[in-house]
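Structure representation.

___
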Amino acid sequence: MRQNMREPNNPTPKEWLSKDHSLKKIADYKPFNFVDGEGVRCSLYVSGCLFRCPGCYNVAAQDFRYGKPYTKELEDRIIDDLSHSYVEGLTLLGGEPFLNTEVCLALCKRVRKEFGHTKNIWSWTGYSWEELMKESDDKLEMLSLIDILIDGRFLLRKKDLTLQFRGSSNQRVIDVPKSLQSGKVVIWDKLVR
C-alpha cells in the first residue's frame, strides 16, 4: 500500500469504508474561526485517517481512537453556533471526514434541514475527486451535500504554503455543485492562488 516512506497511503476504490474504521470520535470542535475556509466558520475535526500523509499538520487526529465521542449535545451546539447570522458555514476536517460519514453525513443532513443553503459546507479530504467518484454510497451522498471540497493528499514534495486553503500544489479547491452538474472538476471561482 505505502509506496515509500515519503508518500501517503493509496486505497483502491471502496477499500476503506467508514463503517469498518470510524469510532465516531472527534479530535476538536472550533466555533467562530477564520482559517478553515471563507468567512467565519464552525470547524469539526473528526478522528481517524488512513492516508497518513507524511508532514500532516494534524498527526494526532489520524488515530481513530483519539479525542472524544461525537454526541447529540455537540451536534446541537454546532447547529446553535451556525445559527448566528455572521457565521458563513460548517467546515469538516480531520482526520478524514469521508472515513467518518456516520458523523459527518448526519451533520451535513441536519445543516441542510435547518439552514437549507443559507450556510455553506466545506470539507478537506485526502481523496481526489476522481477517487471519490468511484467510492461508496455514503461518501457520494456526503459529497452531494458539500459546497466546497479541498481534495487530494498532502504531498511534502509539492508543499507550497503560499496557496490559498491548501498545503500542496496537487490539492484543488472544488466547487462541488458545479462539478457534479457538469460531470467534471470545476475549480472554485473565488480562488486567489
